[in-house]
C-alpha cells in the first residue's frame, strides 16, 4: 500500500454543503478560510508563503505538486500564510539541485493543514460556477458535526487582513550601487516584489501599511510603491486616506495588485469582489498604449470597476484579455501609475518588468 493511502483521512467542507473526502498531508487539525484556486504550475512554496493568500484555502489546479521539493530561497515571507492547501497528488520523491525537503514535511513545519487525493477539477468547477466561498479543512470527521460546521461557515468573516500581514516597523533593504530610494508600503508585500526593485538599483524601505504622508516625506525617498496584499481594499479607510495624502506630495507612485486597488479608491474609483478572482501565472493583459498582450502573474479576488475610472481619476492603461476588467491605470492629477499584476523581471513571468522601468523613469524625471 502506498504511503498516500496509509495517511489519515481529511475533509474539505464547503459553505454550500459539498463535502470532499481525501487524505491528510501536512499538519493535522481544523482551519477555516475562503477556498480559491490558482492555475500556476510551479511556485507552490511561494503560494503557501505569499501574504496575499492570508486566510485562503488554496486549491492547485495542476494535478501533481511538489516535484522539485522546497528550498531555503523561494519564500515570499518567513511563515505560511494560507489557511489550508488542496492538491490532487503530492510528490514524495522530489528532485532538484536546490531541494531541501518535500512539501509534506514543509507544510507540517509551517502548521498548514493539507488535503490530497480529492477531485480538484470538480472543486475548481464548483468555485468557478458558484464563486469563491467559505470552507473548512479538517482531519476530523465532518459528518459527525456537519450542521455545526456549516453554521460556523455561514458566520465566518475574515477581517483585518492587511493589519495581520503588514510589518510593524521600517526595514531597509540595501543593494550595491543604489541609485534610488523607494518607500514600499507593506500591505502584505512578498519578497519577490522587493527583489524586483533592489535588482534595479533601488534601496527599499519597507514601511507599515498605516504610514502617513509626513512620515513618507521625512524618509526623503524618490518614489513610493504600494505593495500587493490581502483582503478587501475598501476595508482599509485609514490606509486609503493616508494614501490620498501621500499622493498629494507629488512623489512618483506605483500601485501593485492590492496597492493598485487602494490607490484607485483613494482617487475616487470603486472596487468590487469578483466571482472567483484571477490567480495564476498565465493571465493575459493588454497594454492599450503599446497594443501588445503580456502574460502576467496575478493573485486577487477584487477588481477596480472600469466604469468608476472617470477622467478625473485617470485612464485605464491595461485590461485583462479574458474578461476585459481593469488591469492598470495612469492617473490624472497625481504622479502615479498602478497595475493589477506583478511587475516582474527577476522571477517568474518576466514579460512585465517594463512597468518597473517606467516607474524608475518617473523617479529619474523628478530627480533631474
Characterize the structure shown:
- The protein is of the alpha/beta class.
- The chain folds into two domains: 3-158, Glucose Oxidase, domain 1, CATH 3.50.30.20; 162-367, Class I glutamine amidotransferase (GATase) domain (Rossmann fold), CATH 3.40.50.880.
- The chain has eleven helices and 19 strands.
- The chain has helices at 3-6, 44-49, 103-109, 120-130, 146-155, 161-165, 191-198, 213-219, 237-247, 258-266, 353-367; strands spanning 9-14, 19-26, 30-38, 56-60, 64-65, 84-86, 89-90, 113-116, 133-138, 171-173, 180-187, 202-208, 223-229, 253-256, 271-287, 292-304, 314-320, 326-331, 336-339.
Count the E strands: 19
Please give the largest β-sheet: 10 strands, mixed
Number of domains in the coordinates?
2
Q: What is the CATH superfamily label of the largest domain?
A: Class I glutamine amidotransferase (GATase) domain
CATH topology of the largest domain: Rossmann fold
Strand order of the largest sheet: 10-12-11-13-14-19-18-17-15-16
The secondary-structure element order is HEEEHEEEEHEHEHHEEHEHEHEHEEEEEH
Total number of helical segments?
A: 11
CATH class of the largest domain, please? Answer: Alpha Beta
| Rg computed from alpha carbons, rounded to a whole number of angstroms | 21 Å
The percentage of residues in β strands lies in 25-35%
Unreliable segments of 5+ consecutive residues: none
The N- to C-terminal Cα distance equals 69 Å
Tell me which CATH architecture of the largest domain applies here.
3-Layer(aba) Sandwich
Structural class: alpha/beta
Shape field: globular
Helix content: 25-40%
Q: Kindly state the mean pLDDT as a whole number?
A: 96
